[in-house]
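Data card: per-record layout.
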Amino acid sequence: MSNEPSASNDRAVQTAWQIHASLTEVTGRVDAKASFALTIESALLGAVVALSAPGNRLSTISGPLQSTAFWIGITLLSVAALAAVSVVIPRGGGTRSGRHNFIYYGQLRHWAPDQLAEQLTGGDLLPLLSQQLVAMSRIVWTKHRRVQQSLVLAVAGAALLLVAGLPG
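The structure for this 168-residue chain is written out next.
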């Protein structure tokens, strides 16, 4: 029996690398959306601070409805910003996959060049690639959901702040 991978295995490895590249691209786009969301949310929080200064509209909030809307709006906007930050925080874990995973850079750094060369020329990449794709997909999905949550919370918070700023 030959140690050489079959043509179907080669195709599977090639497809897995294409999926890996796609996931890397999607991760970048999600991170960009989170950065955009954080920029908008930070600007809104800055505007609220400026409008809350003495003599400005939000400094004269009165009444339970406006006060409640103001504080819930600030809270939602702050949580939205935290959700956006949680998307772009680097994830350096990866010990779950073990030291044998040379596809993940966090583990690859532990390898000796000669051991890596041996593994790359003689090993079957498909199991490691499959493991990496599942791990990356989970990370991207989590980031995607947090960006969605951030944007929904920001819109809700901004709407409540708008209500708080309406003349009473």
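Known properties of this structure: The chain has a mean pLDDT of 88. The chain has one domain: 17-91+102-165.

See the next section for split statistics.
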